Amino acid sequence: MAFSILSSGAFRLKSLFRRPSKQLHSLSTISEETMTRYCKGGYHPVRIGDLFNHDKYKIVSKLGYGAYSTVWLAFDLESKQHVALKILTADSFGQGNDTFELDILKHIRGQNTSKPGANPILGLLDEFEHRGPNGNHVCLVFKAMGPDMSKYRRLFPKLKIPLPLMRDISKQLLLALSYLHDTCRVIHTDIKPQNILVETSAINKMFQQAPSEAFQPDDSPLDPPNDFYVESIQVSSAEEDVAWSTDLSVRLADFGTASWIDKHLTEWIQPQMLRAPEVILGAGWDCKVDIWNLGLIIWELAEGRLIFDGMWTSNDQYTPEAHLAQITAVFGSIPRRLLDRSKNRDRYFDADGRLLEPSTFPPCALEQLSKNTDLSGSEREEFLRFIGSIVRPDPEDRPDARELLQSPWLAR
What we know:
By secondary structure, the chain is an alpha+beta fold. The protein is about 25% helix and about 15% strand. Keywords: ATP-binding, Kinase, Nucleotide-binding, Serine/threonine-protein kinase, Transferase.
């Protein structure tokens, strides 16, 4: 069975059978997880062919990494199918900074999975612990999936996902959030393109039927003892053009920083450029931070660019001051009731609610920011109203996921 590779530098999918010839990597040419975190309490060194959980799972290739984990394609020698194996750093548990990830995933698994919002969530299949040279590692097993949305969007001109497909993806993600918030009482806190994974029937068939040898990397590993440090590659079936699949669906993944609605893991959440105003201001937050995140992601995938980047100029670094200035440029002054409950108010605003660092951004409505020429007429109006209802500075003004599912733009 043929399949395709999605690599970080690829614009279109490249067939397995058109791979470049083998090449030797040096440590300086691989840009993955921080090498210095391969230490006591850090990452576990994983090598292709390693066996885990009493020889049940055999490592095939590397799928990705994060600040607290690496993720691997593994072959389940019992079920004879490929799975995704997430290996957490040893300090993720038992060092006083435990995440809620395992408990939350078990809780989600124990809920009513017949509800429509359960399927767009990447659920836990298995879990176990593995002892290695850097400590004890919690290992989580998931369904193997296709590319994440940051890679998938590269298949389209100007990184814009077609609107009919974007509406369908938006519905699936809102169903997932409604299920998480209302049924599971969980807040994801880290919704971003990298945590939205694609699947199709062809992708599922590939992971079920393709031999492991087809997925193994062509490139030679580094010399020992660094032969565990390899490049991650996402894959998709070559039996279809996944950009135009008729049965594409998505799943929300990675609950590494998730919180309970009534118990937070940390108060500092979300990727910088997707951070909600209440998080920046220290005003307390709830499940509406996920709504803010999702609104920005839907805009980014439909328009091909972010609404806010938190930078005064394109050459600057992110700052919360610039981020708040951009938010006020689009939506006007931050509501008084939000400022009144903000711990960080005096860091950014004066007593009258004006920014301490004057904004260099002129007022600019969402209508002016939208550049998608495929949006026109009534659909453009419905889309802008939909996004405008989500991305509201005060979380009390944002609809919940269940309400947003009734939006006219999604009903088209």
